[in-house]
Write a structure and sequence with these properties.
The protein has helices spanning 4-10, 17-25, 33-43, 52-64, 89-111, 117-122, and strands at residues 31-32, 68-71, 84-87. It is mainly alpha-helical and 124 residues long. The chain has one domain: Winged helix-like DNA-binding domain superfamily/Winged helix DNA-binding domain (Arc Repressor Mutant, subunit A, Orthogonal Bundle). The chain has a 3-stranded antiparallel β-sheet. Helix 1 crosses helix 5 (89-111).
């Protein structure tokens, strides 16, 4: 018997880099768009900087698929234009499935003797 939730999650794979990073940003809690942009830039040491067009296009697709949803503002006095997003249970399942998929790819590469350049330099 196939696990329906696993099957539901796997139909969204593979995630694009922006989709993956947006979902990962929401693991810690609700965030507004600019907060997502800042979190991604910080976690990637500035290697990935999403523009607002890329961000909101990706969020729209994630919301349409049920992976993220709008969340209530954190404070009543918050600017009503600031929209918060939250990770849904399906979104978490998809993110976990993507992490498993990427982990399997990494294990395959390591079995072939490939290592990240920084890791290879340390072993010399």
């Amino acid at each position: 018997m196939v696990d329906a939730s696993k099957h539901d999650a796997e139909r969204f794979l593979p995630l694009s880099v922006p989709q993956f990073q947006i979902l990962l940003s929401l693991v810690d809690g609700d965030r507004h768009g600019y907060g997502i942009i800042l979190d991604i830039a910080e976690r990637t040491d500035g290697r990935l900087r999403l523009g607002t067009g890329t961000l909101y296009t990706a969020i729209a697709g994630l919301a349409e698929g049920g992976l993220v949803a709008r969340a209530a503002p954190r404070r009543a006095d918050e600017d009503e234009r600031r929209r918060y997003y939250r990770l849904t249970p399906l979104g978490r399942g998809v993110l976990e499935a993507e992490v498993a998929r990427l982990g399997a790819q990494l294990r395959q590469a390591r079995r072939k003797g490939l290592r990240p350049a920084a890791e290879s330099d340390r072993t010399k």
